[in-house]
Amino acid sequence: MSMRKRQQAQYEHDLHNHFDILSLSRLDRLKHYGLHFAKYAGRLARGEREAKSRQETLVDAFLVALSAANALNQALADIDIGKDPKAGPSDLLFTDQAGRFADACEKIDHLEDFRTIALNANAALVHWILESAAVDGFDIDALVEERRRQLAQRAVYAQET
């Protein structure tokens, strides 16, 4: 699936299921996504001690990265991971890029240039997530669809299934 289609699907999901976040200012949404990335870095750092699985963390991080790209008006590039990835990137790379995204969010309050930092960090996070999912043998698109279904049912106004 193309990144454009993934971003469009995320926008539709956010519009119907996360209007509380979409109604925030764009800058506040970016800070919200930065907090999510920090949360996921913590999950990865805890490893086996974390209640949420690595798979759940990758999927949640991917959804947030797509939402962040939409808030940044960032056209994410399609990424070809290859057919047989051997070793995934270090989890420290995720933490590094989450920290860079947080740095961009912190710069917002000081009226410093933040967008380029956020764009680069978000693109790197997306690449890390897709590469990690491929190495772990996860079908990220199928997992994303299932997660979106779960999230859609959390709202009190959700249609009964």
Report on this structure.
With 161 residues, the protein is mostly helical. It is built from 7 helices and no strands. It has helices at residues 3-17, 19-22, 26-46, 54-72, 91-109, 115-136, 140-152. α1 (3-17) crosses α4 (54-72). The longest helix has 22 residues, at 115-136. It is globular and about 40 Å long. 30% of the residues are buried. The mean pLDDT is 94.
Overall pLDDT level? 94
Ends distance: 27 Å
Beta-strand fraction estimate: under 5%
Computed over alpha carbons, the radius of gyration is: 15 Å
Structural class based on helices, strands and sheet pairing: mainly alpha
Helical fraction equals over 70%
How many helices? The count is 7
Q: Which sheet architecture does the biggest sheet show?
A: none
The gross shape turns out to be: globular
Count of β-strands: 0
Sketch the topology as an H/E string, one letter per element: HHHHHHH
What are the segments in which pLDDT stays under 50 over at least 5 consecutive residues?
none
Summarize, please:
With 161 residues, the protein is mainly alpha-helical. 70% of the residues lie in helices and 0% in strands.
Task: Write the topology of this structure.
Elements: H1 3-17, H2 19-22, H3 26-46, H4 54-72, H5 91-109, H6 115-136, H7 140-152
Distinctive features:
single chain; 161 residues; mainly alpha; 7 helices; 0% strand
